[in-house]
Each structure stands twice: as structure tokens, then as C-alpha cells.
Design brief:
With 353 residues, chain A is of the alpha/beta class. Chain A contains 13 helices and twelve strands. Chain A has a six-stranded parallel beta sheet with strand order 2-1-3-4-5-11, with helices on both faces. Chain A has a six-stranded mixed beta sheet with strand order 7-6-8-9-10-12, with helices on both faces. In chain A, β8, α12 and β9 form a beta-alpha-beta unit. Chains A and B meet through α4, α5, α6, β2 and α7 of A and α4, α5, α6, β2 and α7 of B. The structure holds a DNA duplex (16 and 16 nucleotides).
Chain lengths: 353, 353
DNA sequence: CTGAAAGCGCTAACAC
DNA sequence: GTGTTAGCGCTTTCAG
């Protein structure tokens, strides 16, 4: 390959504007101590020459890399891509992350990391050494992996933990899971449902617990029982089906079910079909995620939207600002909305068959 | 921000192994002229110290950046993300691209570029100057934008053009659109259909034309007419609906329709529903793309799968090899498959109402 | 086969 | 306010 050199460097700009490299550097980095007149002259040269700083060189000289790294679970992400499940988590991350990075002259890179591997640390160290990101976004279950958070903290790399409230370093952002679950539950209560089942996510996601808490609190507030009405899955279809079957096989079966992911809700729909239960006439269903698939099921799913794009956008913003303003210590809550579609209705007047 | 330095550099490795920087560099880059014994010693130090080269430094000293850039249409991509349409084009690109990059120690970055803007060149130049990618993947409609291909060629940056057969620089890769369309058509013909409509994509995508060609050829081969049976959309739902309506309003309306995207096929389904046409009893439907949504429609869609992941993977591989082995001049065809689902059936015995 | 020197483009630290 | 100097970590010459 031809040894590619930078077409136009800071040196060219300096010569063109008749100033020192440093002054150009100051203008690029919007540093103070440059007279407006000079600044303008330099900027004019930059524009005319079409100069753009090389991020490699910037990074080399010890400044920022203008790179934000978003880390996702390797196995899960690949499985979703391969299965073409329609989960658009990564897309929404990119939507929120890339656009916000753009605004600040940053770039976002996505990395897949295997949490369960015993060499997470080495893997992550390698990535950090190679890329030198200015900030890292951790998504569950990485957000609560002490090997990862510890490494980042030790390296003094600002990072955000999505879906984690654990004390410790890093910005914590949640999508207000407890409140969302309560909201969904209240909605069903207001429709007259009294037996509302809940399918929780796996324990290694903190938000699984928060959602259960929200559901339970809303149920108790309404004076309704929760015993035996909570099953658990791993967010996937298979386990969702098992959980749904258990709930629907209860003697006094629920007239409504909230499931902690779209895939598990798909399973609820299937379980209902198997029993000739009509949704929403015989069974109301509310989902979590609001991925594209919810509009295509029969009936379309009422779902708690996860504001992924906005959450990542907030995270990016805080990470970029980190050098200037310290990271907030308090968790940040980006609230989700309940998007109503056809899968919920009034509780059936009669009891179950 | 704390001035972050590389934790362990090539210098540490050199000292640890008792050799010169150069030798370490040679080992890293798998260059010849290193005795196996020495190589092993150095590699041992690398492993022990957990050394990873800084890509910034590598890039700086004029070698590779280990970066492949994948460029997508800005407006379209953002619209799809925002609309949560379930299009997983970007995900499939990442699936194929990231994993293949990984294997070779490369990284893939996704960029959104606005083709229709009049400053594409400046925008792209800036990105290239900042990132210095070793290879670029162009997706339609960028693949055929001479401003872009010209710039890349001038800069001697290896690039791949997905979905383009135009002569000129860059590797050309297609998903064999003509053949796929013919295959879909033949399938319908074999089911007894004689009036098979086609909804083409927009003209600024070459592959739109190839698909029409494939359909027309198969129809002619079967001795069937095509007049008035080809409408056009922009891959989106709205225009798909218009096209579907036109076809279904024909006096001698088609008993089968092939549409050039899943979104347009969704529109065909809706148009059929509006007319109380049952799919597949009254109307058979075949789609292009095979995005996640096709499994959730009623009935699920028979679709031509676009092997995006594999195509991007091939492109990445060739791009990475570019310095060693010259880019192939001939186009590369990655063949798609027809995935059969419930939306096709035998042609109705009687004519239309 | 191995090593020493020079420099990539930029910014930090310091002088003026 | 502005310029000068000295690297950052690596690879590329070019010597041995």
C-alpha cells in the first residue's frame, strides 16, 4: 500500500496563515488566548485548505482520541443478529450515540465483549490500549461486571453504566424500570384486572429486579395478590414460553401478563393461542422493549418503550463533558413511555374456564 | 483529563525481551527476517506484559490504521432507525464486517454520509483525513456516486462498491439481484401463475434495474407478458402502496406480485386486505430483503434473502488483503436464497372478479 | 538477520 | 497572546 501521508497538516495551515503551529492548534481546540483577528485568519486558512486534524496524531500527542466506545455483550448480540430477531438495540444505540458524537466532533465505536469469559480483563485492556477511547459506555450485563468497571476506574477512563444502580465509579443511567413496570401494572388494574402475572428477566440484569419491584408495589398498592404470579425467563422466546405456560396453567390464571421483553411477550401470545385464549378479550398483554416487532404481532403489542437512543445520547454527552465538568454522582433516569396498542383490554367479566 | 499514556509500549517489550524496538515491531507485524527463537522470545514478552500496539501510533508512523470504514446513506438510515422499521441492514453489515475485521485485527466503523448534499466531497475528505481508514465499503446509493468513488480512487484508498457493476475503480460486489428476481419469478411460474406483477425499486439504485431485468427475462422465457405489470416505488411503504394499488386495480390483475423490498411488500399485503384478497389463495407475494419483519406478517412472507453479512464479510476480507494481493477486477456475486414461507401458493383456478 | 536513527502530525509545557 | 521545544509510540529508512 502506498504510504499515505496526511494531505494537509497543521503545518500547512500555519504557513498559510503565517502563524506558529501552536496558534493553529489553539484555534482547532477552541482554546482561549487567541486574538479574534488571528483566530479568524487561521480559521480562514483551515477552511480554504480543507484541513482536518488527524485523530491519530491528536491521540499520539496525549490529548483526546475523540472516540467513545460502546460495549455490548458479544454472545447475545451476535445471536440476535444471526437470528434476525428484529431487536434493534444496537441500532438505537447508534442512533443516539452516533448523532450526539457527531455534534461534538466525536466518533462512536461499537465493541462486542464476552462478559462470561475469564479473560474479559485482557480482552478489554487490549481494546483500550489499541483504541484509547475518551469514554466507554457499558450496557448490561457489563455494567455490573466489577472486572470491567474496576479496570476502567483504575485507568481513569470515564464510563457510563446503563441499567445499573450499583454504587461505585461511573455515571449510572437507567430507563426507570421500576416506574415503568408500575405504570404498566396500574394501567391493567385500571382496566379491571385483578390477577396480573409478571414474567421477569434474568437475575444477572439488575433491571429485572427493579421491574418486579415496580409490579409488586403497584399490585400491593391496589390490594392485589402477587403470590405465584411471577415467573422468570432470560429475555428469549423459549424461556418466555415456559414461563407463560406456567402462568396460564395456574388454576386461577391471570387475565393479564406483563413480560420483560418483546421476545418473551411473543411467547405469551403463542401460549395464549395454544389455549384458544383471545388477546385482549381473554388475556391482556404488555411488553417491555417496544422493538419493531410489536407492531406486527396480532394484535399489536402495548409496550413499555425503552428510550435507548436518548439514554445513550445522554451518556455520550456526559462522557464528552467529563474533562470539563465532573461526572454526576447521582443516577440519571430517562423515563420510558407506555405505548398503547391492541393487546390490552378490559378484564373479562367472568372467571377463567 | 489525566494525560493518559500507553501502559505498556513496544519499548517495554523490547527491554523485557532484550532486543531492539525494531525486532519487536517485526514480530508484531509478522514480518520475515526474524529467527524463530527470537520471535518466540519476543512473543513471550508480549504475552506476559499484555502488550497491544496503539493503533494511533501505528497510523502515525505511516503504516496501516487497521480501520475499515463502512459508509451508509445518512438520511435513509436515520429514518429507518427513528421509524423503528425493523430493517436490520446495518446490523447485518456489522455482523459480517465486525466479525471479519476481528479475525484480522481490524476494526470497523460505520459512518453516515449524505449523498445528496453538495458537500459530499468535503464531508468525506474530512472523515478520511480524520480516520485514515485502510479500506472503505460503499453501499448504495454511494456505490455509484462518482464524487465519492473518484475521491477514494484519487487518494488510493481501496474500496468496495456494494450493489454496483459500473466499470471503474473499486471492488464490485452484488447480491446477484437479476438471478434472484428470476428465481422468484420462476417459482411463481411453476405454481401456475401467469400474470406476475413486479414492484421495482428506485432508479438511483442499479440493483432496481437488475431485478426488473431478471423478472422480465424469466417471464419472457415462460412466454408470459410483462406489459403494464411493472410499477415502481422507493423501497418504502407509501410508494409501495401506490404501486400495489395500481397493479391490483388492473383489469386483468396479477395473481402474484414480487416487490423489491419488505416494506413495499407489507404494502402489497395491505392493498390485498383492502380488496378482500386472501394471501396466498387469491394473491401470491414474494418479497426482497428478508428482514426480521417477514416472519411476523400474516401470512409470513416468502422472501429473497439478501446475504448482507456475507457480502460485507467478503468485501472486508478483500480490502484487508489489498496491500498484498491486488483487488479483483471482476465483480463478485454473493448469491441470495429464496426463503419460502406462507405467502405463495398455486395460482387461483378462476380469473379475477 | 538485527539495530540505530529519523520522523509521522500533533499538543503539553514552557518561554517570551 | 504567541512562539519554541520536546516528545507521544510506532514504523520506516538505512547501516551493520
Amino acid at each position: 500500500m502506498a504510504r499515505r501521508r496526511q494531505a494537509v497538516t497543521i503545518r500547512h495551515v500555519a504557513e498559510d496563515a503565517g502563524v506558529s503551529l501552536q496558534t493553529v492548534s489553539r484555534v482547532i481546540n477552541k482554546e482561549p488566548n487567541v486574538r479574534p483577528a488571528m483566530k479568524e485568519r487561521v480559521q480562514a486558512s483551515i477552511d480554504r485548505l480543507g484541513y482536518v486534524p488527524s485523530i491519530a496524531a491528536q491521540r499520539m500527542s496525549g490529548s483526546r482520541s475523540y472516540l467513545i466506545l460502546a460495549i455490548n455483550d458479544r454472545e447475545k448480540t451476535i445471536a440476535e443478529w444471526r437470528g434476525r430477531s428484529g431487536t434493534d438495540w444496537v441500532d438505537q444505540m447508534l442512533l443516539g450515540g452516533m448523532l450526539t458524537c457527531d455534534e461534538h466532533g466525536y466518533r462512536m465505536m461499537v465493541e462486542l465483549v464476552d462478559t462470561h469469559s475469564d479473560h474479559v480483563e485482557r480482552e478489554l485492556s487490549a481494546t483500550i490500549a489499541a483504541l484509547q477511547p475518551d469514554g466507554v459506555i457499558l450496557t448490561p450485563p457489563h455494567s455490573e461486571n466489577p472486572l470491567i468497571t474496576g479496570l476502567l476506574a483504575k485507568r481513569h477512563i470515564p464510563f457510563a453504566r446503563i441499567g445499573s444502580l450499583d454504587p461505585g465509579p461511573g455515571i449510572r443511567l437507567t430507563m426507570d424500570d421500576e416506574h415503568s413496570a408500575a405504570m404498566a401494572t396500574e394501567k391493567l388494574v385500571s382496566l379491571g384486572h385483578r390477577r396480573i402475572g409478571f414474567i421477569a428477566g434474568p437475575d444477572d440484569y439488575s433491571l429485572s429486579g427493579w421491574r418486579v419491584t415496580g409490579w409488586r408495589a403497584a399490585m400491593e398498592f391496589a390490594g392485589l395478590p402477587t403470590d405465584g404470579l411471577c415467573e422468570k425467563g432470560d429475555f428469549g422466546f423459549e424461556t418466555g414460553l415456559e414461563a407463560a405456560n406456567k402462568l396460564l396453567d395456574l388454576e386461577d390464571r391471570p387475565t393479564a401478563i406483563i413480560a420483560s421483553s418483546d421476545q418473551m411477550t411473543l411467547a405469551v401470545l403463542e401460549a395464549a393461542r395454544d389455549r384458544n385464549l383471545k388477546v385482549p378479550q381473554d388475556l391482556s398483554v404488555i411488553s417491555f422493549d417496544n422493538t419493531p416487532v410489536v407492531r406486527f404481532t396480532d394484535p399489536p403489542l402495548t409496550a413499555v418503550d425503552q428510550p435507548i437512543a436518548e439514554t445513550i445520547s445522554r451518556a455520550v454527552e456526559l462522557l464528552i463533558m467529563a474533562p470539563k465538568s465532573p461526572l454526576p454522582l447521582e443516577p440519571i433516569n430517562v423515563q420510558g413511555q407506555l405505548i398503547e396498542r391492541g393487546s390490552i383490554g378490559p378484564a373479562p367479566g367472568a372467571n377463567d374456564a
